[in-house]
Amino acid sequence: MSLVPAVSSGWSAGFANLLGKELGAWWATRRWVIHLLLWLGAIAGFILMGTLAQYRTSTNPAGDIEELIEMFFHLGGFFGLIGAVLVTQGAVVGERESGTAAWVLTKPTTRSAFILSKFAAIAPTFLLLSLVLPAVATMVILTVFWGSAPPLAHFAEAVGILAVHQTFYIALTLMLGTLFHSRVPVGGVALGFWISGFILPNVKFFASLTPYLPWPLTDAAARIALWQSLRYQVWVPVVSTAVLIVVFLAVALWAFEREEL
Amino acid sequence: MRLEEQDLVIKTSGLRKSFKNVNVLQGLDLEVRRNSIFGFLGPNGAGKTTTIKLLLGLARPTDGAATLFGFDSQRDTLEVRRRIGYLAQDPRFYDYMTARETLRFTARFFFQPAGLERHIDETLELVGLTDKADRPIRGFSGGERQRLGIAQAQISKPELLILDEPAASLDPMGRRDVLEVMGRLRQHTTIFYSTHILEDVQRISDTAAILHHGKLLAHASMGDLLTDQSGGTYLVDLVGATDATRHRVAGLPWVTGLEETTSSDGTHWRVSTGDASAAESDLLRTILADDSVRVRSFGRRRHRLEDVFVTMIEGGTA
After folding, report:
1. Does the beta-carbon distance from B115 to A1 stay under 8 Å?
2. Could you write out the DSSP letters of every residue in B173-192?
3. Strand partners, B211
4. Do A185 and A91 contact (CB within 8 A), yes or no?
5. How many angstroms from the chain centroid is the CA of residue B102?
């Protein structure tokens, strides 16, 4: 049987193959199992421990459930963004260091396909393992032990907002990987941006920018899940963060296109 | 060496590359003919890997241009990479993959899945990795990694193989295996490979270029490189009474020197000549005209590539 040439051209040449490879690095190895156990333990595990400590003796079940839901979003936001940075910081830097990037880019594929395949694999996989499945586990825990759970639509909307927050850090870290040649500045700048979210909103100039940045999204997600009022329209940071994600990816493509390997 | 454009697989014109004001490559003009095995020689730091990276589109030239199959290495890099296979000096793959998965991943850039598994099996057999096909690469030895590197480079049946120091890190057995595989592949493809192992080049290349400090010192067929260009030195082994013959040969107008040594197995002459064509047509005839001597061997002296290389590198000129 003679071989049939692959048909792809333009920026997407080799994209499907690269995406398959990136997804394989998660799903064809034990990596997904390790991450799933880690995230279930780190997020749903806390919810379960809180539940087991309170649900038999609680005098205010509604208040305790609210606390647990708030805990889910704050833990998810905190651990999730750290995980997003750690998982993504080696995606470009590691391949540049090991020489696999140079090897892959001698095949008929493009640098855009190389970067976008990483984003297209990491973002949904990481969000599924670190956010969606722990969220499902949390809903199950609340329903089984407390007999009550937040309205599914609100909870799903809040999880979606947190997903935008985590995706922002994935895109930011991916972009930094194309700009720096070592993991330290990549991870450092990304985590530094998150830490500055505790400081800069108190500075007059940055206070006005805060609603347009991802910093308020964790709190907004918790409030939406709890059906509480917000100080501002939640779509503002969601849309501006989504725009920033696109900008980061565009910068990553631009920078990597100029990279000499 | 000027070749017709359609015969050329690689052509570089004034290719230059500088890093932070250091000229790594200084106006390289190179032509690689179709179906040749082209040895790209030079000491470490000569600019060989930089040249290869420029050809592959992994780096951008400071000046000049390179075309492969008539396609510009920078502008038409996708078209170039559809036609080539590449093996890096220290090949790196995804360690969690097996050899088979690595070849499948590589092949899918070039081919649709139908019929691919059989092709992968054949390729694994070609490089002798069939029994290790399903083991993760992280456990591979240097030689096995190198053989996998050659397998992935040629799995697309490329028109051109670019190999960067393919045997540098291997033991003698590994080197022999790699050269054997290269020999088998030459029937189907052009091979451009960089090396500093001169013995390998002399063994399998038909053309070579010598690069030093980013400058091209020589670019010629192996025959031309290894042949004494000064008119020719001939080595003759004889038995019998050689005195009269020696006087007659030494008196020829185009003979510029004759050194004689003797040993238990006869007399050995080293005849230097100033006219290659006269020597070619008349030297042996002149010796054989004397019935008192018998010629056991006769031939024009060929240099070892190592001699040529060292002379050029130390002299710094072609």
Report:
1. yes
2. HHHHHHHHHHHHHTTTSEEE
3. B216
4. no
5. 28
Helix (H) or strand (E) holding A245: helix A235-257
Chain A residues with beta carbon closer than 8 angstroms to that of B58: 102, 105-106, 260-261
CA distance B84 to B162: 7
**pLDDT tens for chain A, residues 1 to 261:** 688 988 878 899 999 999 999 999 999 999 999 999 999 999 999 999 999 988 888 888 888 888 999 999 999 999 999 999 999 999 999 999 999 999 999 999 999 999 999 999 999 999 999 999 999 999 999 999 888 888 888 899 999 999 999 999 999 999 999 999 999 999 999 999 999 988 888 888 888 888 888 988 988 898 888 877 666 677 888 999 999 999 999 999 999 999 998
Closest by CA position to A91, among listed A104, A80, A107: A104
pTM of the model: 0.84
Query: For residue B118, which residues of chain A lie inside 8 Å, CB to CB?
Result: 1
Mapped to the 3 state alphabet, what secondary structure does B78-103 carry?
A: HHHHHCEEEECCCCCCCCCCEHHHHH
**Maximum Cα interatomic distance, chain B, rounded to a whole number of Å:** 76
The length of chain A is 261
Q: Which residues of A touch B51 (CB under 8 A)?
A: none
Query: Residue B222 carries which DSSP code?
Result: H
